[in-house]
């Protein structure tokens, strides 16, 4: 049975209800679930003060469970980046731990690439957001659940999706690319620019998503990455979900499609849309930091990777 530890490295959990529900459901999926001692700690908007959350991160790393699943995102890991013992985190991965999460976990995942290149974490569900929903809230998404279980078992070696039919992408048909997979939440990733925790990836496959950011803000961050040479240096860019923002009467038809078009007009790097990832119910698992192969046939996109014991260990 795979050991799985639930920990809270960023934002506070307001109640324990979703945590208990997530732990029960994950146990039913065959995981031996443990909850970190400070998972429900509270300090302002954080899951404990910085020292508490840093200690929890290192405690989980030292225990090296099969799976280290964050309960939620929010904000908080940026405060810890300068103090994280990346050697301890890397040691846990080398011993089979699969760290999983998204949103604020983008800082940890890409910081690892910057400090311990060659190792990887998983962008995937969060315990409370994805496994802790009540039935009235829609319960657990089956695709998200099944993809997570397959990834944690070491069996997941590819994900596929269909490029958005709203975009004209005939020129992407036949595209093949290979590179390091990296990225995650656009806002969090941009916050790493110019810091020691920025992953200097060239020729990679960059994936991005965000929530509650107006399309003009998304465009501004995308162009920031392009103007700094980041996007132009990639083999491909995959865009996930960018929903949640309120429309403005000033938009006059302007939206995410226009933001994507603005980026495509300024780079030769293929920019594909439709990746099932982000702050949405249905999301795939992606090995952040792993070398992947990208294939496009018509509008069908496949992202695959070779099984690697540092990405998906059989368990302890």
What's the short version?
With 316 residues, this protein is an alpha/beta fold. It has nine helices and 13 strands. It folds into two domains: 2-153, Rossmann fold; 158-304, LD-carboxypeptidase A C-terminal domain-like (Glucose Oxidase, domain 1, 3-Layer(bba) Sandwich), CATH 3.50.30.
Strand content: 15-25%
Number of helices: 9
Shape designation: globular
Just name the CATH architecture of the largest domain: 3-Layer(aba) Sandwich
The CATH fourth-level homologous superfamily of the largest domain? Murein tetrapeptidase LD-carboxypeptidase, N-terminal domain
CATH topology of the largest domain: Rossmann fold
Structural class: alpha/beta
What Rg, in angstroms, do the CA atoms define? 19 Å
Percentage of helical residues?
25-40%
- Report the strand count: 13
Task: Give a verbal description of the structure.
This protein has 316 residues and is an alpha/beta fold. The protein folds into 2 domains: 2-153, Rossmann fold, CATH 3.40.50.10740; 158-304, LD-carboxypeptidase A C-terminal domain-like (Glucose Oxidase, domain 1), CATH 3.50.30. Helix content is 29%, strand content 22%. The protein has 9 helices and 13 strands. The chain has helices at residues 17-28, 50-63, 86-94, 105-115, 127-131, 142-153, 186-191, 215-227, 256-264; strands at 2-7, 31-35, 67-70, 98-101, 121-123, 158-162, 176-185, 205-211, 236-243, 271-273, 286-288, 291-297, 300-304. It starts with a strand and ends in a 12-residue tail after the last strand.
